[in-house]
Each structure stands twice: as C-alpha cells, then as structure tokens.
Specification:
Blueprint: H1 5-30, H2 39-51, H3 56-65, H4 72-75, E1 78-85, E2 88-95, E3 105-109, H5 123-133, E4 136-140, H6 152-166, E5 174-179, H7 181-195, E6 203-207, H8 215-218, H9 231-242, E7 265-270, H10 276-288, E8 293-298, H11 313-331
Parallel strand pairs: 3-4, 3-5, 5-6, 6-7, 7-8
Antiparallel strand pairs: 1-2, 2-4
Length: 332
C-alpha cells in the first residue's frame, strides 16, 4: 500500500532533521569531515544526501520549484531578466551598467540529471559567472525527462545556440557552459554542431559534467566518498532521460563521442565526487584528440561544488578560474 503523501512528507522532513543533527554531532565529536569544509557545507551535504537518496522523489520536486537566492554582494552587480529564446523561457544575467551587445555571451545549461532543476535553481552560480567573466549569461529552461526524453534537451540546446547566432551573437564571443547533466549536454551540443557543420563556440566550461550514462561508469565506489549523488540516482535519471535510446549512444554519453576539433575546455571537478573518475577520463580523451583542456580536481570537494560558492571558498575560486578562462578566450 502506498504511503500517504502527508505521511511521506513528514518522514522526509524528519529524515532531514535527523541528518543535519547527526552532522552537528559528528562535527563536535570528530571535527571537520575534510579540513577545507566550512561549517555551513557540513550541514548542506546531509540535506542533499537525504534529498538525493531514499526521498529522491521529494528532492526532485523541491529542485524543480526552487529559485536560488543570489548572494547580495553579487546581486548588486547583476541584473536578471526573463525572456524567450527559440520558444523557451530563459533567464538572462547581465552585469549592471554594461551594454549586453558589447559583452561575450554564455549559453548556460543547468544540471539536474535531465529530470529536475531549472534556470531559477541555478541563479547564484550563473550570476557569479556573469559578474566574474563580465558576460551576458543566457540560461534556457530546456525540456526535462521523463515527460520529454532524449533527444528533447539536445534539440532545445541546438535551437537556442542557433537562435543566439541569428540574433547577431558571434561564435567568437560565445561560450557554452553547464554543470552536471548540463555539462554533458554542453558537450553533446558541441559534437552535434560539428556533425551539422555549424560554427563552434569559442570555448566550453564544464562544472562536474555527467559525461557517461552507462552503468559501467556509474558504478563508481573508489572516489565517491559520501557524495550526495550516487550510482542509484544516476541510474534512475539515465533511464528516464534515455527512453528507448541506448545509454552508450554518444549523444547521451559524450565520453564515447569523437572529440576531435572541439574548442578549448575548462573543467572543474571535486576530488570526492562520484563523477571524478569519468571526468578524468574525459580530460585524457580530450588531450588525445588534441583539444586544449584545463582540468582542475579540487581536494575534498563533492559534486558541482562551484554551485555552492556562497558558502565554499573553493567554489568561489573555481568561478574565478571560469571568469579568467572566458575573458582570456574572448580577448584573444
């Protein structure tokens, strides 16, 4: 018999309370989980583990509705507006006091396992990139599984990229970026553009990208030291997104794609995250293909740590590297 919604909701919040309280006790008894973890991160991680574990259904619902607040010091420097692009709703982040037509453009594809999250859930990290890179960031609300399985997200990404070019954005000043599933989607977009013989962007920024949906690469145990995103949730999301398509299809798992001719890549990965090993493999494949890749593996960090820059100095430092990378590309 299905557990009534209210009862399950109460259990969910009870599990959150227990997890956060347990983190506090462990902190007092044993000290920091990692020397570089601030107190706030110690409490955020157990929350994410509960939302991404036994109560993943509630985690998905929360992430779909969530609009992340922009840190006040960043909010004062950026203007966020809503618009449409290729028929999709978009968030547009523009540094205050700047003419957007003179700025580079970042097409940011949000993460969420292809099944959840939105431009709203990623507002803080997108705003930080806009400010640090002095760029206009456009984040589309692309279609999600299971209602819209592959290739819906990829089709939307291609349509948005083309629409930016039609609007007058030069590929020489256009950067594609994404975190987690959005990072995998960004690479799939680059490969598809090359197949279509369309102009490539100036570069790509990948934050903890999910690049291989196949089970052999999901079942990672050596490096995911308590990461809040695990093989079970990855497997569930992969099947919902893939639909009837093989998980090994390169457009789904671009780790398997021909990477020849891709533009310069900057990739940020947490040392303790479940996807670290596949990110390292991807960086090596890029080097073998002759692609300029700059890959930083940050000690003790978990999945998509730059998205927590408001509480993580390491995340803020990653955004600094992103800004330097983008500025260097568009000025060269």
């Amino acid at each position: 018999m299905a557990v009534p919604s209210l009862q399950r909701r109460l259990r969910f919040y009870g599990a959150l309370t227990h997890a956060v309280a347990g983190a506090a006790v462990r902190r007092v008894r044993h000290g920091k989980t990692h020397p570089d973890w601030p107190l706030a991160y110690e409490f955020v991680v157990p929350f994410l583990r509960v939302a991404g574990g036994d109560y993943y259904d509630f985690g998905i619902k929360l992430a779909r509705k969530r609009v992340s607040p922009i840190t006040p010091s960043i909010a004062r420097k950026v203007r966020v507006t809503q618009g449409t692009l290729a028929g999709l709703d978009v968030d547009i982040h523009t540094p205050r006091g700047r003419d957007p037509t003179t700025l580079p453009t970042v097409l940011f594809l949000h993460g969420g396992g292809y099944v959840t999250c939105s431009p709203g859930s990623h507002r803080d990290v997108i705003a930080r990139i806009a400010v640090r890179a002095n760029a206009r960031c456009v984040a589309p609300d692309y279609r999600l599984a299971p209602a819209h399985p592959f290739p819906a997200a990829l089709e939307d990404a291609v349509a948005c990229y083309r629409a930016l070019l039609v609007s007058g954005v030069s590929p020489r000043t256009l950067i594609v970026a994404g975190d987690s599933a959005g990072g995998g989607l960004a690479v799939a977009l680059l490969v598809r553009l090359r197949e279509l013989d369309e102009p490539a962007p100036r570069g790509v920024v990948l934050l903890s990208p999910w690049l291989d949906l196949t089970p052999t690469r999901q079942a990672l145990t050596g490096q995911g030291r308590g990461d809040y995103i695990g093989p079970e949730s990855l497997a569930a999301n992969a099947l919902q997104y893939a639909g009837t398509t093989s998980l090994a299809e390169p457009a789904l798992s671009p780790l398997h794609a021909d990477l020849t001719g891709l533009p310069p890549v900057l990739m940020e990965t947490g040392e303790w995250e479940t996807l670290c090993e596949q990110n390292q493999r991807f960086a090596e494949r890029l080097r073998q293909a002759g692609v300029d890749v700059r890959h930083t593996v940050v000690p003790g960090m978990l999945h998509a740590f730059p998205c927590f820059s408001a509480i993580l100095p390491q995340g803020a430092q990653a955004i600094e590297r992103v800004g330097t990378f983008i500025s260097g590309l568009v000025s060269s």
